[in-house]
Write a structure and sequence with these properties.
- The chain is mainly beta.
- 3% of the residues lie in helices and 52% in strands.
- It has one helix and 33 strands.
- The longest helix is centred in the first third of the chain and has 13 residues.
- The protein is globular and about 70 Å long.
- It starts with 6 loop residues before the first helix and ends with a strand.
Length: 495
């Protein structure tokens, strides 16, 4: 009698056959999409065995959220991804209800260690339980530890909830493994706990690094913790945020960078500054890794839970979800900056450069347009004293367009996709601060079919959004109100 396939073998066979029906033209050019089915949080982002590995929350059998697996892709340039077989499936007692978000770290013996949240289903005695599990392998196939979960709910300090205990981010430092894990406290709400281990298998609680205390959402997810340019950075993704009057945070699910100091001897983190990570409409659960050259690289789920209520609008695609363009992180003037990974320059083709262009009435400019491009617009505010508002419309065609409005006299910017073709009652507009720097305001817009990422003032602020605009809408136009605006423009097509 033939042996029955395991759950992992079954999903690998399914995804292989289903992927054969998806053509390259159905995918984005340089943003990672799932092999098949559903994608959300990035997992296990790391550099291992000569390549970048990016795992992701994955439901291969449907384009809606379901029992979580780990999808897997590898790349040598962070732009072109090769799909690997599904890495983890919910097939043990410890993760019977799903293999949820986590991370990865290379081990001294050459194996890759995955750490993830295993969810045990609810029964008549309790709600579901979330605990931390590990698996190790060769970068393709992984063996789950027979002692899973390796961090159980019994190891939580008093007041912390076993139902909201998830998303471990693991790293190794000085021969010791560390992991930050999100958990909800009955009083302090969203919190990040620090654990340590000598071997990656046996773990103990160390400290509470920080908590929301009702100020930044009710539950924190997907923490990351790293040193950058002399500052310690704690990234979290809060749920149930309240909007702030200064537009730093919007209501709902968000992403926050807590900047401060960390005492490695006492394992105490002192928060000094708080800022949003991405101000856009589609960005959540960022995760970082160190590149071999020392760059800190970040990627995130380029979607929002607000845009996926029930059955998502996937545009008829046989997959749903995508990752952001990977970004390089730096600290400047005490602030987290983000820029597209420099590898994107290898895609540059067809350069169009226009200098000192004066625009007043709405106009298209020669050589500017498309849906796969890297466009930089530098507004000379000092040379445009009468201009109150500059507008850039993109993905424009017929009555459809998406718009960036810069109120130069107030130092504010609006990103608006409400005229882009969506029929969904979801957020469509964001407002941010965008003050000129040395008399110039710089906008860098990267488009990849339905993906738009805007970098303001060389990454001082970033907005990410998915567009519902048909790909036939290729136009880009410029306009000004109050008086002419002086522009320098550089566009590269990306291929």
């Amino acid at each position: 009698m033939p042996r029955k396939m395991t759950k992992l073998e079954a999903v690998r066979e399914f995804e292989h056959k289903a992927a054969e029906r998806i053509s390259a033209s159905d995918r984005l050019e340089f943003h990672l999409t799932p092999l098949v089915g559903w994608m959300n949080d990035p997992n296990g982002f790391c550099y291992y065995d000569g390549a970048y590995h990016l795992f992701y929350q994955y439901h291969p059998y449907s384009t809606v959220w379901g029992p979580m697996h780990w999808g897997h892709a590898v790349s040598t340039d962070l732009l072109h991804w090769n799909y690997m077989p599904c890495a983890l499936a919910p097939d043990t007692v410890a993760d019977a209800a799903g293999c949820f978000s986590g991370s990865a770290v290379p081990m001294p013996d050459g194996r890759l260690l995955l750490m993830y949240t295993g969810v045990q289903p609810a029964d008549t005695g309790h709600k579901e339980l979330q605990m931390q599990c590990i698996a190790a392998g060769n970068g393709r196939d992984f063996c789950k530890d027979p002692h899973n979960p390796v961090i159980s709910t019994e190891q939580l300090p008093d007041g912390f909830h076993a139902v909201d205990f998830r998303d471990p981010k693991i790293w190794q430092e000085g021969g010791t493994y560390y992991s930050v894990i999100a958990c909800r406290h009955e009083n302090h709400q969203g919190s990040v706990l620090l654990f340590e281990s000598a071997d990656g298998c046996q773990w103990k609680f160390v400290s509470v690094l920080d908590s929301s205390c009702g100020e930044l959402g009710k539950m924190w997810e997907c923490p990351d913790f790293f040193a950058l340019d002399g500052i310690q950075v704690l990234l979290v993704s809060p749920q149930e945020m309240r909007a702030t009057a200064d537009s730093e945070f919007h209501a709902g699910e968000g992403t926050v960078a807590l900047l401060g100091l960390y005492d490695s001897a006492t394992h105490a983190f002192a928060r000094q500054k708080v800022q949003a990570v991405d101000y856009g409409l589609d960005f959540y659960a960022p995760q970082t890794t160190l590149a071999p050259d020392g760059r800190r690289i970040m990627v995130a789920w380029m979607q929002s839970w607000a845009t996926v209520p029930g059955t998502p609008c996937a545009g008829g695609k046989p997959w749903f979800g995508r990752m952001t363009l990977p970004r390089e992180l730096t600290i400047k003037d005490g602030r987290l900056y983000q820029t597209p990974v420099r590898e994107i320059e290898t895609l540059w083709q067809g350069k169009t450069e226009l200098s000192g262009v004066a625009v007043e009435e709405r106009a298209a400019l020669p050589g500017i347009g498309g849906r796969s491009l890297d466009l930089t617009v530098r507004i000379d505010v000092d040379a445009s004293p009468e201009c109150r508002r500059f507008t850039l419309r993109f993905a424009e065609g017929a009555a459809l367009y998406n718009e960036i409005r810069c109120d130069l006299d107030r130092g504010e910017l609006a990103f608006d996709r409400s005229h882009g073709g969506s029929r969904r009652d979801i957020p469509h507009t964001r407002h941010i601060k965008a003050a000129p720097r040395n008399g110039k305001l710089t906008l860098r817009l990267i488009l990849d079919k339905d993906c738009a990422e805007l970098f303001v003032n060389n990454g001082e602020r970033v907005l990410s959004a998915v567009l519902d605009t048909p790909l036939e809408a290729q136009g880009i136009t410029f306009g000004a109100e109050g008086g002419p605006v002086n522009l320098d423009i550089v566009q590269y097509t990306l291929a």
